[in-house]
Amino acid sequence: MSHAPVKPGAAFAFRKTMTVAEQAMFTGISGNLGGLYVDAVRARKAGASNMVAFELAVGGLATTCLSQLGGPTRRIGSIALNFAAPVIVGDSVEAKAEIVSVSGDEATCRVTCTLSPSGATVVDGTATLVPFAKA
């Protein structure tokens, strides 16, 4: 199986608003019933303006970008994310992934998530794209 070439500098961005309905779905998927994530009153008592969006749901937006960069023959081989600040349910987030280097069939990417429209970084990290299966 041949793999489409990936090149340093290629980038993809994706923006979405973190909704209450998706927060409820992610609660069911993850089983996380932490008060910051499922109870607006508790979140407000902790200093948030509303429930806090699940960090992995926010970071998961970057996987959309990585999938677009990798195309149909690549998958995420690794991902390391730093969560610089909480995202509140109702916030809009722009995720971006950019290929920074390529070694053989493996591409190293920088990933970021920023609040829109302020541009404040809420997630940053790295990921690798690898072939789905070796030829």
From TrEMBL:
GO molecular-function terms, A-Z: (3R)-hydroxyacyl-[acyl-carrier-protein] dehydratase activity
Superkingdom per UniProt: Bacteria
Domain MaoC-like: 9-107
SUPFAM superfamilies the record matches: Thioesterase/thiol ester dehydrase-isomerase
InterPro entries membership: HotDog_dom_sf (IPR029069), MaoC-like_dom (IPR002539), UPF0336/Enoyl-CoA_hydratase (IPR050965)
Listed GO biological process terms: fatty acid biosynthetic process
Name of this protein: Acyl dehydratase
Originating organism: Bradyrhizobium centrolobii
